[in-house]
């Protein structure tokens, strides 16, 4: 087959609210060619986001279900689609390129794929239309112990509580850090820091080859160790339904790089807080400057000053200040805009902002 099946798949993926923009150097096609065999790409381009049983999919596509089964299971194993068991039988669904197909290549990723992705990422300037419209896909979660004690923290900004209230926990190697390492741009931060949690299911990760099962206590320790290392907590930009917390750096993270490297305004949402300095306590030691990944802090004359429009409200600077001179306070516009309630609401808002109609994929 020619590139036609890959063009069709790329177009299908770009109809998903997350987006998958075509780029002039055609690196998007080369990326899909690495992930999908032609027969896999052809089938994926005809699948739906909501999921179908093999009988329903076969009937709609006029294909033999027995013929489809092996192919679908192979595609699910390769992280190209989602497969799960439901009360009506096993179901198969199309997933976005990111967050979705790309992250599921963690186990398969090699140097060739890492270079292909970097080419595409730079050509699309941080995955293009995903970062050019609201709502952003990620939201920064503050280090809760850095928030001044008289402020209420919304449930979706309580990282510890999201983990505490789950029923299963796991951790993955960060695919962003792995990708950068494979192109000889290694990261000095810890790498196994992507925390997965299932709010309603026990033993959710027992059969997940990419996820190491951990206890709740170990998940909480990874969260705290990530804070101490200076990594930024990020999760889904929704109020309910979160199932992961990424611990990110601006040198590797595809989302944070969208802002710091490509100046994309809607790469992610800052937290509801920003850092404040107590001038009576600050000694100008500069520890916080070294911790900040966004160049929001400086010590020009013995006191730390904050460039507020650079501060993302992560709080990693505050927890290692030797004098306790830093804390997170509410942004002046806190409450003006809240995240979408759940993922489907996010997808609806994103589709409208991008001007795409994903209805045929539902």
Write the layout of secondary structure elements.
Layout: H1 4-15, H2 27-35, H3 38-44, E1 52-53, H4 54-61, H5 65-77, E2 81-86, E3 89-94, H6 97-101, H7 111-123, E4 138-140, H8 159-164, E5 168-172, H9 175-182, E6 194-198, E7 212-213, H10 216-229, E8 232-236, E9 244-248, H11 256-260, E10 268-269, E11 273-277, H12 287-291, E12 297-298, E13 305-306, E14 326-330, H13 343-354
Helix pairs in contact: 1-2, 1-3, 2-7, 4-5, 7-9
Q: Can you give a write-up of this model?
A:
With 362 residues, the chain is an alpha+beta fold. Helix content is 32%, strand content 15%. The chain is built from 13 helices and 14 strands. It has helices at residues 4-15, 27-35, 38-44, 54-61, 65-77, 97-101, 111-123, 159-164, 175-182, 216-229, 256-260, 287-291, 343-354; strands at 52-53, 81-86, 89-94, 138-140, 168-172, 194-198, 212-213, 232-236, 244-248, 268-269, 273-277, 297-298, 305-306, 326-330. The protein starts with a helix and ends in an 8-residue tail after the last helix.
* Strand/helix succession: HHHEHHEEHHEHEHEEHEEHEEHEEEH
Number of strands: 14
Average pLDDT figure: 95
**Unreliable runs:** none
Instruction: Please describe the biggest sheet, giving its number of strands, its sense, and whether it closes into a barrel.
Output: 7 strands, mixed
Helix content estimate: 25-40%
Strand order of the largest sheet: 7-5-6-9-8-4-10
Specify the overall morphology.
Answer: globular
DSSP strand content = 15-25%
Number of domains: 3
Supply Rg. 21 Å
């Amino acid at each position: 087959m020619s590139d036609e099946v890959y063009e069709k798949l790329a177009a299908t993926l770009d109809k998903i609210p997350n987006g998958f923009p075509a780029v002039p150097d055609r690196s998007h096609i080369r990326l899909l060619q690495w992930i999908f065999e032609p027969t896999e790409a052809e089938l994926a381009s005809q699948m739906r986001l909501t999921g179908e049983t093999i009988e329903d999919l076969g009937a709609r596509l006029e294909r033999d279900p027995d013929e489809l089964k092996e192919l679908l299971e192979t595609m699910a194993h390769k992280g190209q689609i989602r497969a799960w068991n439901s009360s009506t039988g096993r179901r198969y669904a199309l997933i976005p390129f990111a967050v979705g197909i790309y992250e599921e290549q963690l186990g398969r990723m090699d140097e060739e794929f890492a270079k292909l992705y970097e080419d595409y990422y730079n050509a699309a300037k941080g995955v293009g239309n995903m970062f050019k419209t609201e709502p952003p896909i990620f939201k920064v979660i503050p280090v809760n112990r850095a928030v001044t004690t008289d402020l209420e923290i919304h449930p979706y900004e309580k990282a510890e509580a999201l983990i505490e209230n789950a029923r299963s926990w796991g951790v993955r190697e960060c695919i962003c850090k792995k990708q950068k390492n494979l192109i000889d741009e290694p990261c000095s931060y810890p790498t196994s820091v992507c925390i997965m949690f299932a709010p309603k299911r026990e033993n959710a990760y027992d059969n997940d080859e990419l996820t190491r099962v951990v206890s709740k206590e170990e998940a909480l320790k990874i969260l705290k160790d990530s804070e101490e290392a200076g990594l930024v907590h990020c999760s889904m930009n929704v109020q309910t339904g979160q199932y992961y917390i990424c611990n990110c750096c601006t040198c590797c993270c595809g989302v944070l790089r969208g802002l710091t490297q490509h100046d994309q305004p809607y790469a992610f949402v800052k937290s509801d807080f920003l850092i404040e300095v107590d001038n009576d306590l600050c000694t100008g030691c500069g520890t916080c400057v070294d911790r900040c990944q966004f160049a929001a802090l400086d010590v020009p004359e013995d006191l730390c000053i904050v460039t507020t429009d650079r501060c993302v409200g992560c709080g990693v600077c505050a927890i290692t200040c030797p004098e306790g001179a830093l804390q997170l306070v509410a942004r002046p516009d806190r409450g003006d805009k809240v995240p979408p309630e759940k993922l489907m609401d996010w997808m609806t808002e994103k589709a409208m902002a991008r001007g795409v109609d994903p209805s045929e994929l539902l």
